[in-house]
Records
---
Amino acid sequence: MRRLMLCLLLTGAAAVTHGQDLTLPRADGSTRFAVIGDGGTGGSGQQRIADQLAAYRVKFPFEFAIMLGDNLYGRERPRDYEEKFERPYKPLLDAGVKFYASLGNHDDPPQRFYKLFNMGGQRYYTFRPSRGVRFFALDSNYMDQDQLAWLEKELAASGSDWKICFFHHPLYSSGEHHGSNIELREQLEPLFVKHAVDVVFTGHEHFYERVKPQQGIQHFVAGSSAKLRRGDLKPNSELTAKGFDQGYAFMIVEIAGDAMHFQTIDGEGKTVDSGVVMRRTAAAKEPADRTG
Amino acid sequence: MTLSAVAVAITVAWAAYPHAQAQEEKVNRDARVLADYQKRVEGYLALQRQALKDVPKLEQTDDPAKIQAARDARAAAVRKARAGAAQGDIFTAEVRPLFRRILSPETKGAVGEDTKRTIKEDAPARISFKVNASYPEDQPLPTVPPNVLASLPRLPEGLEYRIVRRHLILRDAEANLIVDILPNVMPQ
């Protein structure tokens, strides 16, 4: 019986890892993380991505994951935390992967008190997982003057670190359903430009889009880690460098020196996008971003 | 200056005087309404502080049941302390035209269209809400566009604005309580 169980487990693992093709360099001392957006459904889509995350982590041991909002859809009772977060990501949580959440429009702000979301009790916060890399988690549902002043102060103090912002609503998006959030862009982009933010990750749109760099900043939209709005990407959008709206997706990312390598993976474990983004200060010296 | 030029200047000044006076009165009235509004907001916070003095604070925990329990306790305490609360206690009749005027420019032009779209897109399904009741827990919290937030009077920590369709809600974020409602404040 035990042999049969082991056999079944191995078959299951093989099915999940089918199609795995890691393109990231796994350099010594690099910063490694995963990106999931709009993940908190508790449904089969979330589970599929959670399984792929766990499978990919075997080859690419990322230390933490950032969450782009809509962490818990619907009600937020204790059992919802279990069904929509703790259970699907159990293998990762058990392995010590830390999750850093930002709030989406389906999230109630008291999520910030939930320790496993690592928000430190704040709607917006910053953290530095390794030397030279700083993240800023923002609450794009409620971008008030206090938050903008805080962001300005923190960005100014972050020096030459990689500056990576993540939040829910995309400043640039080719989605038919939502599209770019222009009023948010008007508030945030001047700060991002002034303080040389390198990369922005957002969700809200239930597809994946790598936006062509805007004002020197690389934007990713990755809100299909449990929900999918198939065919929602506008065809021939001038914003899109690469889009994928035919399946669930998540990202794995590695920062090594001035290069940020990324790989976007679908629910079947297949790579749908990959490439390298250079840090802005370094990019001025480098020829161009290499993406594929 | 000729005598006729002086006469014209006096006539113009005389004609403009009522307009300037009206403007000044309007500014004073707006300042008075805003001051009264702020006082009412502070009054709510004072009442909230008193109601919560024996209620455990929301603190970081890995047990969501504790978050829920702390929140429910806060809501119950504030609700009890405001048992007689009614719509318009904070958003008075005088606040409505002022807020409408403040918000009107934010719904005009290209950014205004985007603002209205954001509010509409993130709006929850048809829900009913009333003062001193909880905001429906299974519904999304509509995003408040930053330009709208920037135009409204700032709120102290713990209170927030939310716009549901055309209605402005004042919400106690940690208790998830609807403190007041200003109906139809957003221009169509």
Note: Residues 2-17 of chain A form the longest helix (16 residues).
---
Amino acid sequence: MKPLTRTAVIAAAAMLTLATAQAQQSITIAAFPAVDDIAKAAIPIWKKTHPTVEVKVVSRAFADHHTAMTTALSTSSNLPDVMVVEYGYVARFAEGGGLENLGAAPYNLQAQQAHFVPYAYRQGTSNAGAVVAAPADIGPGTLLYRTDLLKTAAVTEADLTQSWESFVGAGVKIKAATGAYLVAHARDIKDIVIRSDIKAGEGLYIDNKGKVLVDSPRFLRAFQLAKKVRDQKLDGKINAWSNEWSEGFKRGTIATQLSGAWLAGHLSNWLAPATKGLWRAAQLPEKAYASWGGTFYTIPKGAKNKTLAWEFIELMTLNPAMQLQAFKAQDAFPALVDVHNDAFFDQPIEFLGGQKARLLWRETAKKINPIEVHKLDPIADEIVNTELDKVLDQGKDIPTALADAKRLLERRVNR
Amino acid sequence: MSTPADHIPGPAAQPATRRRWRLRTSQVPYLLISPFVVLFLVFGIFPLVFSFWLAFQSWEPTAGLASMKFVGLDNFRFAITDEWFWKSLRNTAWLALASGVPQHVIAIPLAYFIHTGFKRSRNAVIGAYFLPYITSTVAIAMMFGTLFSTDYGLINLSLHALAQVPGLGWFFPDAPVDWLNRAENVKPAVAIVVFWRYIGFNTVLYLAALQTIPSDIYEAATMDGARRVQQFFYITLPSLKPMIYFGVTLSVVGGLQLFEEPFILTGGRGGTDQAGMTTAMYMYRTAFEFNDFGGASALSWLLFVFVALLTWLTNRAFRPRGNAS
């Protein structure tokens, strides 16, 4: 064989080998509903820059997904390249140290910090300072209310938002005039009030020195307000995502819902589409800026294709077109501030009677303070909810309930 | 060049080649049962041993297997002094009794009634009672969740309609019953579902046992003038004792491990004030919600002690008299 021919054959063989290797490349994205659709919708854009890399989206129900990811991290097996994590699980997964620090090289997400909503970026950062999760979408808190019910009861939006006391007072009028509940569950009010007025260094339930805070004034007020609502029969004792919850929305027996901005999309798409035009959005009472959930992208330390995984995460979190596409298709409010001035924010929302609610939510997103998270937050939440149940249903004295909650939580902290 | 004779193995080589692949007759049974043994070791024994090991460890699962730390009996100490563990045990015992006792008290006469009262349509009737047992628990729990709905559920609508009937009104509540949102109602609601699901299974058990009782005993009793009720109490019931022992043991074990029905009916939390949270649910939540796998394993072994103890007591109560074994 002539030297030239031999070189050409070797080069062709090398290119073929490379092409085959690239064709065999694939990355796995583990996600839960809605986010899985967003990831699948990104594949055509991904293919433009990575034509030979397949994207496999593994979708599980929300709880199953996080259980499967816990198991995968615990055994370091069957780990996806990209792990989608909901806000509530970020601290838990960060605690184990099984996630890559995206803030450091080679990812250097820290350099992109200014592009994200500040509180969302902080939520993806562990207490040790590692950026374990890149925020994709956020859930700025809002008050959704039924205009028709408010009109019948001669209640204004200001009555609902001025203070928590005026919110409850408005509920009394709504119940008397329409028979509708003010809120689905009194617990919803407690959940907001305990998240308001959190001081620097304080977590939701436990501060950064391990001190349990569940008997602090914000918990006392939250319990008192919830009790007031229950005593006046202003809540339907309806849990979120239950059949009764969606029926309540459809039949107009729930006048308001404190929730993330994303709920407007759910109401419009499947919960109560027939109520189009009857809902409006407002800031939470007493300007309690709070967040409801959020989606984050992470890379497990045991992932096989970290470079490609990071490129996919960049596409999902830092690409303006992708962020807007997810917002338009799935109401995934962008964590990327670069798109917050897009014309889409100025567009009226038909379901909310033409209100330009995205501008309202954008303001909320700017003002939300990040809350320090603790690995015992899930059990603290359960302890507080159980004591609230006793207050609401069995008439347990509030200070005693909070003291019991503190004792139960301290027992876990000191373990 | 070789001749054909070169390819014919000699008498010494032939058995040696075959012996390599041949199993001794005594080994064949082991080979045949090996699939089961392997699966049992992987999915039965290994989880048991691992769970026992975990019960003595503190483990942050998301940090991998290497992060386990031996903590001795700490997990057991914590579980025994845990209010929620005892609350879950009380809930479990309540549900096991409220759903388990009626299953047998009703299934025995029901089986007797079907056995004596139905001829041609008997299999269809048994099938109808057995249907809930083979239906998906998730589907059942979701269906009952809808039926128990406070404002829109069929049960409350029916109770309300009955309350309007003159003369019956005093017996039925006029206001809707808060089945799944009041602590005192959660357990009865769950017990109703469990009872409804397993009554058919127990009825089939007792029907099978009834068929083994010789008919000539009944004929002799009839000749002696024994009435139906007397025959039931003096012939049927004593003859069913071995099956009652079997059925009650299954109910005790199943009742103490109750998980799916309360889990789905109460949204995974056990309902208000955790009134429907069974020990199996608490174990699950401790592991997968509260991330404490060591604590959950300790709970599971404590539950095992209770199940073993109650099974032994059942054995003491129902085993045939005069039999030492």
Note: Residues 75-318 of chain B form a domain with the MetI-like fold fold (CATH 1.10.3720.10).
---
Amino acid sequence: MINAEFPRRVATLLLRFAIWIAPHDTHDWGRGMLSELHHVEGNWPALLWSLGGAGVLAKHAMLAVILPGSHRRTVSSASELFSKETPMRKTTLAAIAACVVASLLFFLAPVFRQAFQVSLAQWHDVFHISQRWLGHGPNPELEALAKKAEQNHDAEALAFVAVRAANQGNEPEAVRLADEAVHLDSNLTWVYAVVGTPCPTSAEIDRWAPALEQWDPQNAFPHLMVAEKIDCDEVEHGVSALKPREKSAAWQDAMAAAFQSPKLDTYFSRQRELDRRVLIRYRLRDPFQAISDGVSFGYGLPSYGIGDSDEYAKSLLESGQALEFHGDRKSAFEKYWTVARFGQMMGSATSEIFVQRYLQEAYQRLGGLSEAEGNHAEAAFYSSLKDRADQAVQRDLAALRANSRGSDLSHWSAFLVRFSGLVMLVCSGLLLICALGVFIRGKSLRLTALQPSSLSLAIGLFAAIGALLSSAVLYAGYRPYSEILQRFITKGDEAGLSELSNFLFATEVPLGAHGFLGVYDAVSRFWFVVTLLCAVALCFVLLIHFRLRRPATASA
Amino acid sequence: MKTPRLSPQTLRVLERFVERPTAWRYGYELSRETGLKSGTLYPILMRLAKFSLLETKWVTTEDGVPPRHTYRLTPKGAALARATFATARSMLKARRPAFSGGRA
């Protein structure tokens, strides 16, 4: 319930503030309005009276800022003639305060806080705040979530953190959390696949692959993990064989098992669902944590998985050819068919591009075999499958190109967000410098004792307006992406997620760098400019110091 | 001599002043009599004062109540107001036959 006197009190405050910012020649009028306020009948009419009057005074204050000469006070004494123009200063100070307060009010909106956080992502590489791309960067938010999840025995949250820790290269933590998550809930054994993918050299793969195979025996994934581990061990010991025929029996067995498996699941959809549940449960709103993209690690497959499959498929096709040459068409057919079936599986799990070579060759050879046996209908069927695979490759290539380039809109929005974030930081810095300068000059913390110079006021006003405008641009630029994220978290709607992913990817590139390849050049340039500016500032300070000292020394 | 633009609202204010040309008037009183809000009334008063058509004075009314700002037309303002209303009346008279069906 509002106090009946409240509107009248607000009215008084409002008019007093308006008088404070108004030019001097309107003060009498303002005080006149204020004195009349005591005679206005009713509290709400009093507020209306005050609003009207404050509007008039504010208009004059604005005019005084735009046309400083239009509100000159009549000077009545010599001392006043040389005194500073306080009304003008008050108006400017009020404008600066209003802009700063309005900018700070933006921070009350969670969307804006998120946008500001995203705008800071470009500095991660510059200051090595989080070595997202080099790994081993501690993430306080994830650490806090891991602690909370351990306290709550929340297996899903532990799996959530494990996946992100693995993606950020924190292998020991990823292994520990994944094991704990599976220990609490064996239905999460699939986490071994997701966590193991970015950590192919981990000794845990020897333990995790059999566990995964036991949990999901039909999946080719654990066999691809084993094959990759063997590859990594061979590379580490310098015995990497180039031809599949020369590979170890263990590798051959793993790949044979993978090619015989009835399915290939990267557990991407399970991961997305788990992410959503954890994001909702813990109210996480960091878009970089929310969007854990499996695409960066070979579509969620072990990084050697595509190469290994390619090599093994080639060896199967060669052996099929040899069998065909010796007249064993049935065995040759089985070899070709194994390759074709695995290619179909792999193509739908990842992209048709990766299986294009051997899948099309397998169809071609199957068609050739059918033709040789006089089965023209079957030959035509394999030919149509080959054409369909070819079309799928073209489609995937176009999608990949569009995805890797990102839409113009996401790039433009990322630029706006990075630029407005940068302007906000620069303007805040300028405001801070102005405030410090005024306090140092005034040698007091009392507001009445402070006498800001015209330069400080001009820079302060410029910075405050800049901060307000950049805040508004940052908010408007980020809002559509926040809505996409919100829709994904609350409704599971994945529309626009790739756009969001492209946008976030682009926001991590520092302004001025052309893509990730130019990040390190941009970082070097940035630090070069900072060093140069520091050197110039030092020279300037020394120059002032010696110029001020010289007369003193001369008089001494 | 430059004079302010005489809008219908300004005329309403001047009319109130002309009724009692020597009396000092309060802002709230004028607002109630003319039906104008403070956001409209004060710019008019300020403009009239700027052209020296209006004079202002602070008056103390009673103990504990802040002094009030009062307004009155200057002789120049009163002359302008009278002239304006005289012109308006004569124009009205001249137009009346046209609207009264020939009964002047």
Note: The longest helix of chain A spans residues 454-491.
